[in-house]
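quick one: phenylalanine bound model?
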Amino acid sequence: MPSEEDKLSALSPRDRQVLKEISDGLTDPRKIAEKLGIKEVSVISSAEGLAEMGLIGLDKRVEEVYALTEEGARYAEIGLPERRILEIAGAGGVPISEIEDPALKVGIGWLKKKGWAAVEAGKIKPAGDAPPGKDEEILGALSFQGETSGSALDSEALKLLKGRGLVESRAQKSWSLEITDAGRSVFRKSVEKDVAGRCDSISHINQITPDMIKSGVWEGGYVSYKGSRYEVRPYDVALPAERIYPGKVHPYQRLLSRMREIMLEMGFSEIKGEVVQSSFWNFDALFQPQDHPAREMQDTFYLDSRAEIPDHSRVKEMHEHGGEVGSTGWGGTWDPEVARREVLRTHTTSVTIKYLADHPNPPVKAFSIDRVYRREAIDPTHTPEFEQLEGVIMDEGLSFANLLGVLREFYAKMGFEEVRFRPGYFPYTEPSVEPEVYIQGLGWVELGGAGVFRREVTAPFGIDHPVLAWGLGVGRLAMLRLGLKDLRLLYQSDIGWLRDVPTLSRM
Ligand SMILES: N[C@@H](Cc1ccccc1)C(=O)O
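yep, here:
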């Protein structure tokens, strides 16, 4: 005879769970399976093992369960034929000849058999009270509660109904589980072994203490505790762990750093410019006419202040008459007072043109990543301040094709393999393009503007070599890279979405 200890160690964790539920009073394997979130067959196989060891009693019963046939279900609704004839007959009775429907006619025999009516001179005469019979009760019960054990129903009436084809039955196995004294004792033992929460219900140590490590008692995967030997519970690496939220660099900042890195890798140097610029550098130097709509108050943040502007005679000449480069200029009068008005820069091109004016000799290869300001209504894709990445290259013999090549390389480094160029328009470049990248699920997305500076821009500053220039909205790119639907999230301190951005992603 195996000892309790032996039985205990023969039990699997599943067996122990099942034993616990049975000891708690659950008898139905289906209910136990539901409670433990496992399959009923698993409970039954555990139960069979437990029963074999004598830890539980297992009562396998087969019982008949009954249900309505289709016809029975109909009668449950409209009444048995004999009941319906009674209703037609009323107190005064009805001639048999008037009961024509064959489905009703079968009721006549039952009327007589149940003593509900007599048939005299071809007429059905009700015999007074006809209280609901057991058969009718069963029809009602089965239609209400569905399949029902025969033990709960009147057997005579059931037999009749079965004979009439109104109910049918089938054999159903049902198991009832009950703990035995031996089972109770083994279960108690398993609970005792749950020492101070350090072991689970049977024979595992869940936690190795510093003492155990020091003394080395855990080596080999076993620990002795109060005279018993416990297995060290193996790690379950599949258990869900608590999420941790380490500090990390803001993903937008990371994206900006990555862009900076790419530009440096491509041999550009970073330049910085002022947030507040004169209209001169923001517009005029870029050959943007003084009546250009982008200069309007509704697009640009103007300050009340006026700036010093450099010697501007050549810029004035260019705007008015086209200077010496064969241009016609914009005509009209160029007003230096308009050029002195200060603005929050609307694009970083103001920074690069100023830099070029200061460095008119080749080669120049510079970039700037900085904030710009436009009077935009705030919505999911527009904010009045946002970042732009701006690049310029000036050198002898550069061509439009070089520009496209540089852009292609930059976008490829940012992770956009498919790039195309659509013709664009900017007052300061010719030709001008709008680069677009292909995004799975979005299609072609415009990602900035680019072009070769016009002579009207470069000549007044003594820049005599081609300038390739491009600007790019960084927020747009961040949305795509970070999968955001709302640009405003980039500027909110709400940590919700930030927590879900992978820490190590290089973006
Ligand atoms: N400044 C333009 C972009 C651009 C830069 C340089 C050349 C051409 C276009 C913009 O803000 O959209």
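Residues 73 and 143 are 6 Å apart (CA to CA).
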